[in-house]
Write a structure and sequence with these properties.
The protein is built from ten helices and five strands; from the N terminus they run E-H-E-H-E-E-H-H-H-H-H-H-H-H-E. With 218 residues, the protein is an alpha+beta fold. The longest helix is centred in the middle third of the chain and has 26 residues. It is globular, with a radius of gyration of 18 Å.
């Protein structure tokens, strides 16, 4: 059986997001693990921008954005209603959170993580800008255990890989910070079977020439 091909890099938060959507939709794909400093020509031929994830469907359609990959998978099978089918209000709230994460928070996260590359301001300044989003999440999580309710939705899975990255820049600071709700929410996701599964290590495709079926029915 021919499967869609997913080019992925294990530690990239965008690739994590794509794998989460595919796994939670139980949609099998043929996974090719890559190394960012040695990108396969086959991937670049399909997606010249050279970033992961990249999903190539059986008909040749290329999906290059992680959130679009999530939506592609979940639109076909969404057993946990991550797309919030019965609540347009929550759909809009989820969309707004994900857009802020991608368009605003991620920029501050990159500057915080690589502060030496952005000497215009201090690392603390960049962290404080990122904290504006962390505080927003903290307030939401004061109301319920997940961002928009008591069960996870697409917003939780699309966002927590980036909060994980933020937390890991200075783990000691994050763990002693006042963001107790975010700490608990993040820890629960990172300790889950879902995260353990999507973070499984695979040999790189260029070295091994091996593809691995990822996702699929439980």
């Amino acid at each position: 059986m021919t499967l869609p091909t997913l080019y992925s890099f294990r530690r990239c938060p965008y690739a994590m997001r794509a794998r989460l959507g595919i796994y939670l939709a139980h949609k099998p794909v043929s996974l090719r693990e890559i190394v960012l400093r040695h990108k396969p020509e086959a991937m670049l031929a399909q997606s010249p921008k050279g970033t992961v994830p990249v999903l190539i469907l059986e008909n040749g359609t290329v999906i290059e954005e992680s959130f679009e990959i999530m939506c592609w998978a979940l639109s076909q099978n969404d057993p946990n209603d991550l797309l919030l089918a019965n609540s347009s209000k929550k759909q809009e709230a989820a969309k707004a959170l994900i857009e802020y994460n991608d368009q605003v928070f991620k920029s501050w996260l990159d500057k915080y993580k690589y502060a030496d590359r952005f000497p215009e301001f201090s690392q603390q300044h960049y962290r404080q800008q990122g904290e504006l989003f962390i505080q927003q999440l903290e307030t939401l999580l004061d109301k319920h255990s997940q961002l928009l309710g008591q069960v996870p939705c697409i917003a939780d899975y699309a966002i927590y890989p980036f909060i994980r990255q933020f937390a890991h820049v200075d783990k000691a600071w994050f763990e002693q910070s006042d963001y107790k709700n975010v700490q608990l929410w993040l820890a629960n996701h990172l300790q889950s079977e879902v995260f353990t599964t999507i973070m499984q290590k695979f040999p790189t495709w260029l070295e091994s020439q091996q593809e691995f079926v990822f996702g699929g029915e439980k």
